[in-house]
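INFO batch 0412 | record 1 of 1 | parsing
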Amino acid sequence: MQITTYINDLLYRYECIIIPGFGALLTQYHSARIDSDTHVLFPPSKTLSFNKQLQTNDGLLANHIASVEKCSYESALQKLRTYTKKLSLQLTEGTTVSLSNIGDFYLNEENSVQFTPSSTQNFNTTSFGLSAVGIHKVSRQKETHQQKEIVPIPMNPVRRFKNGYLKYTAIAIIAISLVSLGGMKMYEDEVQKYNFAEKQKAVTVVENQIQQATFSLENPLPTLNLTFKKQAGKYHIIAGAFRIATNADKKIKELTDIGFSPILVGVNKYGLHQVAYSSYEDRLEAIKNLREIKKSQNSDAWLLVKELEK
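INFO prediction complete | emitting C-alpha cells
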C-alpha cells in the first residue's frame, strides 16, 4: 500500500514514526562494526523496533500524506484509519503482515503484537550505497637492515677552499638580507603611523558632524492601545499532539485561519506538543463545545483537564 512507502520515506529522516491507533516504529543508530567470527565489516546502520504503546497521533505521518497527495489533513487521517484497520484485521485473523523494507508483524500466543525487522534495509542515510564486506587479516614482517661500514673520503684541498669561499659568501648574503628587512620594517612602521593619524582625524570630523545634527518630529502619531483577551480555564479541547514543534505551530495557524483561538497547552509525558482548539473555565461549556467540534471538525478531539502555568 502507498502508506507503507510514506513510512519508509520518513524512517530515513526521523527516529520515531507513529502509526495512529496501531503503534510506533523506532530507529536506533549503530556504528560500524566487525564480526570477528565471520570477518565481515558492517557499515553504520539504523535498526528498527516497534512500540505498541505509542499510538497517539503526533501529526507527522498525516501531514506527510497530506503534503504528498495534495489533500486535506482530515482526508489524510481517514486514509490512516483505513490502513490501520486493515492491518489489525489481518493480525486478528492470524495472518503475518509484511511491510516492504520494514519487517513482519504477527500475534503471539498471548495475542500481543510482535515485530521482526527487515535484515536487508538500512535507514542510515550516511551509509547509502555501502554494504557489508569481507576482510582478511594482514600479516606484517619486520625488515632487517645490515649495518654497513662507512669509509671516510679524504677531503680535496681545492674543494676545501671552494667550500670556505661559499660559506663566507652565504654569510655576506644573509647579512645584506637582514639589513634590507630592517629597512622595510622601518618603512612599514612609518606607513602604519601615518594611516592611524589620518583615521583619527576622519573619526573626529564625523563625531563633530553627528553632534551638530538635530532631529525633530512634527505631528507625532497617537498612541495605540490594544487589549488582548487571555484564555483561561483548566478544560482544554485537544486538536492534536505533535512530536515536532513546527507541526504544532502549523496546526495553530490552521485553526486560527478557520476562526478558532488555539493555544499550545504544553508537552505531555510522551514528549508530544499538545494543541487545543480553546480553553474553558466551565466544565459543562467545554463538554458542549467538544461535542460540536467532534461533529463538525474532528472526531478525534478530546478533553484535557489541566491547570496551565501562570
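INFO post-check: The chain has a mean pLDDT of 77.
INFO record closed
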